[in-house]
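Summary for the steering committee. One of the milestones for this cycle was to obtain a three-dimensional model of the protein with S-adenosylmethionine bound, which we needed before selecting residues for the alanine scan. The sequence and ligand used are listed below.
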Amino acid sequence: MLIDGHGRTVNYLRISVTERCNFRCQYCMPEKPFSWVPKENLLTFEELFLFVKVAIDGGVNKIRLTGGEPLLREDLDKFIKMISDYKPEIDLALTTNGYLLPEAAQRLKDAGLKRLNISLDSLKSDVAAKIAGKDVLAKVLKGIDKALEVGLKVKINMVPLKGINDDEILDLLDYCKAHNMKIRFIEYMENRHADQSLKGMHGKEILEKVKERHTIEALGREGASPSFNYALEDGTEFGLIDPHKHDFCENCNRIRLTAEGNLIPCLYFDEAMSIAESVKKGDIQGAADVLAQVLKDKPKENRWSEDNPNEEKEISSRAFYETGG
Ligand code: SAM
């Protein structure tokens, strides 16, 4: 079992396989970064897999591939198959914007992927285009249909933004209900890479919107998930991810790995250690030592909390597209 310095069990690894993205979402990567990580600095899937084995052997039983846009990385299905063949019972999931799913969904499923989280911030094509920086909605909806058709379990992520898509919370809830998918509303997390004019909706405001049409019952958190679950009067469930409350930090079970090999103990903090040197040499013990040190140093909690009004509510200088959100 992997235990961190605060006694928490860590069993969840998120891997950002690329920082590159085909969307320019206002809250994440509104403009193309000045430079991308050079291709030669990216770990190969074989190198990433060496670390994956160390993590799985240590006790990781849930892996999520993310980015950037993970479907931009060539041969992602081969990496999925490597992980799935090594430990078929692993909870193997992917977070994507869905744009490339119409072509990729079947391959991902065949390789052993089990679940997908798809970002869908609007059902209006002009609003979706405004948020993502290009006309994306039709292809994303097609991607969602395809993922469901091939039998992948799908959850939807929406980031409600004031004055942009805050009037679509109920519509997205209806859409997800009709497609038998769970939606999770994510509070916008302030960060220096986003469009600084954005204003996110607070968790309480999101719940107020839902209550305009529904009665809701609080169900609680599902294990160590940052999502707090609610049920509508007919039993339909939805989730709210509200990092500004940060009461999920005490159950945090995750670490993050970037495409360059930085192992990050917390989305909020800059601190990270690199596994690149170890995995490039095939040094399993070296990679395990880095993992042990990162677990020891994992911070107690993030600093988005409203209990800390003087703290800057920001994440590390690292962008979401680098760490995978
Ligand atoms: N490209 C993929 C996608 O769009 O889902 C995966 C990467 S994206 C960084 C992962 C998740 O982070 C998405 O659900 C996105 O909505 C969320 N995200 C990115 N920036 C965010 C922010 N500033 N606040 C809240 N969520 C954010």
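Key point for the committee: The CA atoms of residues 161 and 200 lie 5 Å apart.
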